Amino acid sequence: MDIDYVSNLTRIELTPGEKEKFQGQLGDVLKYFEKLQEVDVEGVEPTAHAFPRFNVWDEDEHKEGLPSEKALMNAPKSRNEQVVVPKVVE
Amino acid sequence: MDSNSLISKTATELSGKLTDGTCKAEEIAQAYLEQIDRVDGKVHAFLHRDDEDFLAQARASDERRAKGETLGPLDGIPVCLKDVISVEGQPLTAASKILQDYVSPYDATVTRKLKEAGAVIGGRLNLDEFAMGSSTENSAYGPTRNPWDLERVPGGSSGGSSAAVAAREAPLTLGSDTGGSIRQPASLCGVVGMKPTYGMVSRYGLAAFASSLDQIGPFSQTVEDAALLLETISGHDPLDSTSYPTEVPSYSQILKENAQPCALGLPKEFFGEGMDDEVRVAIDKAIEFYKGKGYEIVDVSLPTTDLSVPVYYVIATAEASSNLARYDGIRYTTRSERAENAVDVYAKSRGEGFGEEVKRRCILGAYGLSSGYYDAYYLRAQKTRTLIRQDFERAFEKVDAILTPTSPTPAFKFGEKSENPISMYLSDIYTISTNLAGLPGLSVPCGFTQSGLPIGLQLIGKAFDEGNLLCVAHDYDREHQFGCQAPTLED
């Protein structure tokens, strides 16, 4: 496993110590997963949910959501009813 | 009545005492707070307490009762929740540093249902960070200890929920079960723990780990109490699109009717190597008990059993890597002070805020979903999941419930498995396939080892057949009541 590539995909910064440790541990886990490659799954439908439910409809009507002060109460930084983030566009 | 005798009671017994007026909800709440003060320094089941709020709820219950406006059998009964279930105005950390300052802005559906039933909602219970683990050692706030042996783990991830009931710090608690996280800690702590059928209990307001597997469920001393709590929290919820539109019967009522003995299946793959000898002896005794009661014991086969752990870890980590993307340092988590641009906010906040196991699982999950590996891992695991489900469907053509041990071993020691992810993952080998198939399962205490560690019996039922499953478990439990034995926690 290319640990730098995958940790970047998940947006998790790892310390050099973690990278080394995870490299070994995840290598073992992937080896353990190899038995999946031996299963005959030809023609088998995948299961995403044990009891699939499709088209769960709701009435198209106005409902009160969380008031903005509640939605923002856990934001690390907010101003004027908005979350403040570092500059994204140059 | 002294507080010691109150905390030894089951929820059903406490409910009876409130009804006949021999005690008040406030006395019950006070007795539990005293017990928490006495033992939680050793057990560490609780991450947070709000004693004022707890007592205020109890007094409100007493006032309702005085006016004849009692809301039901749980009115005045304490229920404590795993710290992944939202209670408005209370913290929710998921035992993670990344949520150390988070306060829930709304109630989970199960919380709303408990409040409507008059339950007195208590402190926040410890777990493995984001419910990832089998020992509660992955909590960012320190592990919970097994009340039966403080050198050993309580199981996990709902280790705070199981230990709190075992240590008599709460009569009822809720946990969540993604691969065994209710049943395995229940087994290791000697209490009843139940994972309902997928879709029975709303997941709205539960901090998600793996959404196609997660279910909330009860912990208690007895099966009778589990039935009472389950019927209170179950039912369809429009706020959870995976919640199933099915009628919830009164399980407490069903337990009172005398059930007919039925057919119990023993999956031969579960009884192979890896099972501790003392666990095997206890399970054999339980099987003999059921035979004596007139149950038919049938050999069944679940040939895909050895695939359930790899299938589970591919699917659960994939779902987790996606679900935990929300903890991004932007909207409701701690933000890294080193972050200078947008990607930094994500990567540094998550790097600092998540513990090791959570990082490991997010990375593993992202790998299984990534370009070039999706077919070999995620899709293949989903297809194998279908085979696992079909195994159970075939077995349930012959039997009404399946009987297995809950965990291959009794409680293990701290550090014994924490540096070896695969050995930790294998401690859930008997519980994981139930989640993959979406079926209900519960763990009932079925004895102790020579050294006094609890052993659990697992019963797995047909989908949405909780009534029958509880009856089978109750048949055993009412004659044994191992969950009513309490550990000695010296002052």
Give the tally of β-strands of chain A: 2
Which structural class best describes the helix and strand composition of chain A? Answer: mainly alpha
The total tally of domains of chain B equals 1
CATH architecture of the domain at 1-38 in chain A, by name, is Orthogonal Bundle
Low-confidence stretches of chain A: none
Calculate the terminal CA-CA distance of chain B, rounded to whole Å.
21 Å
Question: Radius of gyration of chain A over alpha carbons?
Answer: 22 Å
How do the strands line up in the largest sheet of chain B?
Answer: 1-3-2-4-6-5-10-11-9-7-8
> Strand fraction band of chain A?
under 5%
Report the CATH architecture of chain B. Answer: Alpha-Beta Complex
* CATH classification class of the domain at 1-38 in chain A: Mainly Alpha
The global form of chain B is globular
What gyration radius of chain B follows from the Cα positions, in whole Å?
21 Å
Straight-line N-to-C gap of chain A: 34 Å
Elements of chain A, N to C (H/E): HHHEE
Structure report:
The complex is a heterodimer of chains A (90) and B (491). Chain A has 90 residues and is mainly alpha-helical. Chain A has a domain at 1-38: Histone, subunit A (Orthogonal Bundle), CATH 1.10.20. Chain A contains three helices and two strands; from the N terminus they run αααββ. Chain A has helices spanning 3-9, 16-33, 68-71; strands at 78-79, 82-83. In chain A, strands 1-2 form a two-stranded antiparallel ribbon. Chain A is flat, with a radius of gyration of 22 Å. Chain A starts with a helix and ends in a 7-residue tail after the last strand. Chain B is globular and about 65 Å long. Chain B has one domain: Amidase signature (AS) domain (Amidase signature (AS) enzymes), CATH 3.90.1300.10. By secondary structure, chain B is an alpha/beta fold. Chain B has an eleven-stranded mixed beta sheet with strand order 1-3-2-4-6-5-10-11-9-7-8, with helices on both faces. Chain B has 17 helices and eleven strands. Chains A and B meet through α1 and α2 of A and α11, α12, α13 and α14 of B.
